[in-house]
Write a structure and sequence with these properties.
Blueprint (H helix, E strand, L loop, with lengths): L2 E6 L3 H11 L4 E7 L10 H5 L12 H5 L5 E4 L7 H13 L3 E4 L12 H14 L2 E4 L10 H6 L5 E12 L6 H7 L16 H19 L5 E10 L4 E3 L2 E3 L4 E12 L2 E11 L13 E9 L2 E5 L9 H22 L3 E3 L16
Parallel strand pairs: 1-2, 1-3, 3-4, 4-5, 5-14, 6-11
Antiparallel strand pairs: 6-12, 7-10, 8-9, 10-11, 12-13
Length: 352
């Protein structure tokens, strides 16, 4: 069977997905949507750096809706425009196209409220299609892997999933400073991440999904952000972080059930190895299941000496989406969560 796919968004991860999809004989790329007007009209292969594919990127939504396809790989950063992304996803589903998205906001539509959940479900009914949200963290290490580990547990007291990354080599000043808040004083309200509730949106949906799947009643989901200031100037790829400003941070969500913390999903990052020495270090993910028996796992994605560890995570995110396409197409219409997804194994196109 040939899977006709549309690539929605042509950013960093989107271009990785194009390259990986193009090399797989069972996939046919039939369309591409770009938010960047400078990319509209360009061949998708040229955008991805692999030579022409004969697919021209467009920023015309109606053209995409009119293009016959089995599935749309929706790779947009939906947090920048959640209502607009919901409208696009519903339109795609209603047009008869299944949707696989890597947007963290859409891991669990129930957590977006009954109106949004109903809109997505209704669009699936209208188009006879399936909606599926996934990723890496969130989208795999915060949900699929710990849920798999629970099959080995007699008793589950608490689940803690942690992501640890160094961002000293990440070059985007906007993302590191204006968005995350490095280089600001801890109490400065200017950066986006200064608002713990907004930061918590990254994992609130995953926490809700985990609790529902495990049968835990939710008292509340608490968002948190802890910061550590640097004692010296740090010269990193994104710029200079002055002494006395934020050089490391830990943020995430806690699911409180029946008065105690049962699930914690969090991120640790620093701009220098010497900061926050009591926090987990390195590049990777930790899954800790406290109970009987205890289970502790550390996972690293990519080479330990990678110049850009975040690229390895982006590739893993994109491949998770690509590998989901067949089972999403085969699924019954409606919302398919990570808890409902079937086990699936990758096939290496280079050995087919």
């Amino acid at each position: 069977m040939t899977y006709r796919v549309i690539n929605w968004a042509t950013g960093h991860t989107g271009k990785m997905v194009v390259r990986a999809t193009a090399e797989r004989p069972e996939f046919e790329i039939v369309g591409a949507f770009t938010y960047n007007p400078d990319k509209a009209g360009q061949d998708l292969g040229d955008i991805a750096g692999i030579g022409k594919l004969g697919v021209i990127a467009t920023n015309d939504r109606q053209q995409i809706l009119d293009t016959p396809a089995d599935c749309v790989l929706f790779l947009a950063g939906a947090e920048n425009d959640v209502p607009g992304s919901i409208a696009d996803i519903c339109a795609l589903l209603a047009s008869g196209k299944n949707v696989v998205t890597t947007a963290a906001n859409f891991i669990y539509p129930k957590s977006l409220g009954p109106d949004v959940e109903k809109a997505i479900a209704d669009a699936c009914i209208k188009g006879n299609t399936t909606f599926h949200g996934l990723g890496i963290m969130p989208g795999f290490f915060a949900e699929s892997l710990p849920l798999l580990f629970t099959r080995l547990a007699r008793r589950i007291d608490r689940i803690v999933c942690s992501e640890t990354l160094m961002y000293d080599k990440y070059p985007s000043a906007y993302q590191m400073f204006d968005l995350m808040g490095f280089g600001y004083t801890p109490d400065d309200p200017t950066p986006f991440f200064a608002n713990a509730e907004l930061v918590g949106e990254t994992w609130r949906h995953s926490g809700w999904l985990m609790a529902d799947t495990l049968g835990l009643p939710i008292d509340r989901i608490e968002c948190f952000r802890n910061t550590v200031v640097t004692d010296r100037d740090l010269h990193v790829a994104a710029g200079t972080i002055k002494a006395g400003t934020v050089g490391a941070m830990n943020f995430g969500v806690k699911v409180i059930s029946e008065g105690r913390e049962r699930i914690r999903l969090q991120h640790f990052t620093r701009m220098s190895d010497h900061l926050a020495p009591d926090w987990p270090t390195g590049h990777g993910w930790l899954v800790d299941l406290e109970g009987e028996p205890e289970i502790h796992a550390r996972i690293a994605v990519g080479a330990h000496d990678s110049e850009m560890p975040t690229d390895d995570a982006c590739m893993a995110t994109g491949m998770h989406a690509i590998h989901a396409v067949p089972y999403v197409i085969d699924a019954k219409p409606g919302i398919l969560t990570l808890a409902d997804a079937p086990p699936v194994w990758a096939k290496d196109p280079f050995f087919l």
